[in-house]
Amino acid sequence: MNLLHSPPSRAAIVALAAAALAYAGALFVLQREPGFSVVEPLFLFAMLGVVFPLLAWLCTLKRDAASAPLPERHQLPRVLVYLAVFALAILGWGFTAINTTFPDEPLQSIVQVVVKLVTMVVLPAWLFLGFRLDARATLSSRRLLLVFVVMSLAYLAMQAVFGRGLITLHELSPAASTLAWAIPLCWLWQTLEAGLCEEVLFRRVLQEKIALASGSQVAAVAWASLLFGLAHAPGLWLRGGHLMEGVAHATPAWAIAYSIVMVAPAGIAFGVLWARTRSLWLIVPLHGMVDLLPQLAPFIRAWTGA
Which of 2, 32, 109, 271 is most buried as measured by Cβ atoms within 10 A of its Cβ? Predict the structure, then answer.
């Protein structure tokens, strides 16, 4: 089924309705926090939930091949159990233990990426894919490169204007010689640590299995984006992520609501790109590019001790 080319199925309507209700309920929970404004989350949703998915769809018009999934079992119940255990054991308690045991950088980051690679790439690929990550890309290499360039420039422009990445980089004031090696290495690091790990687990495994089970790419994008956000809730609650958001006392309800409103929209455009291109060669390095500006200053600090 071609995303946005066919009338929505019942599975798609149910998924979109559930996502909308979850988002509305999460906004209701968050607006009870002192000083909370709906402006930022609504702007974020407009950009990441509407503008960028639409751009992704426009960039992938006139595909070079039919979108035919590889023959494989959906195994969706097992995938959902694995995701729940992973979110609690790794993103919640696991990284808390890592941060306590390895407080110094860059060792902490190295241990984290090793754990991520094992739990988000190696184990899911073994358990659910038989180590077969390919999924029959529907665009030629030249077209994929064009999509990568267009989407990268769009994300970088948005972050340069609205994000804090350039501000924190300016505050750090790294030398030009530092930037010369830090920019490409940070992109490669984010491509590995965030791109490969998150896209294999959430797009190649989770979204693909939902699409196989539901018969709807629209439903798969909606459910996978929602679960992508929810998987971050244990970390927000258990690892002190609430403090960076100005919330003194986090609750599970706050963590779930925040993950739905502020994290889940980021997965929509990548879900559209996966559904329409089926190419990890596109979405993995693109994810690294998306995280480049926000993570550049922390990367320099971690690897130089600045």
Answer: 271
